[in-house]
Design a protein that fits this description.
alpha+beta, Ribosomal Protein S5, domain 2, 2 domains, 4-(cytidine 5'-diphospho)-2-C-methyl-D-erythritol kinase activity, isoprene biosynthesis, kinase, nucleotide-binding
């Protein structure tokens, strides 16, 4: 049986509003998700039984990896088995959704590789058990995502031609940011759809900035080269800015890269969270 390669794309939260909180503590969100062409590359190869992961050691133990968990959810008996080779292009832990994208790509890829024939709704139900962001990556982009990631509506919205994504040399753990958000006592945003972007509002920004004040300097550097506005994706630490063309984003990258630490990427919006 053939190998199959799947590209798992990063996401940006072009908007992120905290609109409430459930009794169990989960924050209720409204967010405009957009997939961009910064990607991990996943190669799936059948094996007799069991799940093998070949990935950078810094990603941690295989049993904790979302790609492995996705394979186990779809192939619970481990037969047929699969070898998952994961080449990272998306920085981990920066709010770009790389782990969730990998899980979705594995679900879609195994569905194709083994001709399982599972419909999107069934794949999304499996994805929801893996993580709040995973279902988005199985469908079209951009999409309006609500609740705890369980309500997804594709949207037809004009998007910038390109983004400059800046990943600082530090991370903002999601749990810490939400805890700080609660401690700040910020009021919930009023729910409602997004008519256009930019601007790129993110209700978690004050909490992330309180914990990591250096984010302010990073944002200022990015804003100095970005006429289209600056935003933060997820709970950080990655920030992004929009540009009217990819060439303009590349020029801005070249201007600001000597002034900052971390990684800088140019990416464009795409219409799906994965590609086979």
């Amino acid at each position: 049986m053939r190998e199959l390669t799947v590209l798992a794309f990063a996401k940006l939260n072009l908007t992120l509003r905290v609109v409430g909180r459930r009794e169990d503590g989960y924050h209720l969100l409204q967010s405009l998700f957009c997939a961009v062409d910064l990607a991990d590359r996943i190669t799936l190869a059948p094996r007799e039984r069991g799940i093998e992961l070949v990935a950078p050691a810094e990603l941690g133990p295989p049993e904790a990896n979302l790609a492995v968990r996705a394979a186990r959810a779809l192939l619970p008996a481990g037969q047929p088995g699969v070898r998952i080779e994961l080449a990272k292009g998306i920085p981990a832990g920066a709010g770009l959704g790389g782990g969730s994208a990998d899980a979705a790509a594995v679900l879609a890829g195994l569905n194709e590789l083994f001709s399982l024939g599972l419909p999107l709704d069934e794949l999304r139900a499996i994805a929801a058990d893996l993580g709040a962001d995973v279902p988005f990556f199985l469908g079209p982009s951009p999409a309006w995502v609500e609740g705890i990631g369980d309500r997804i509506t594709p949207v037809d919205l004009a998007l910038p031609a390109a983004f400059l994504i800046l990943v600082p040399p530090f991370r903002c753990p999601t749990a810490a940011v939400y805890r700080q958000y609660d401690e700040l006592g910020l009021p919930s945003s009023a729910p409602g759809p997004v008519a256009s972007v930019p601007p790129f509002p993110n209700d978690l920004w004050p909490a992330a900035l309180r914990l990591w004040p250096e984010l302010g300097a990073v944002r200022d550097v990015l804003a100095s080269a970005a006429p289209g506005g600056v935003g933060m994706t997820g709970s950080g630490s990655a920030l992004f800015a929009s540009f009217p063309s990819r060439a303009a984003a590349v020029a801005a990258r070249d201007r600001i890269t000597p002034r900052i630490g971390g990684e800088v990427f140019v990416a464009s919006p795409i219409r799906s969270g994965y590609r086979i």
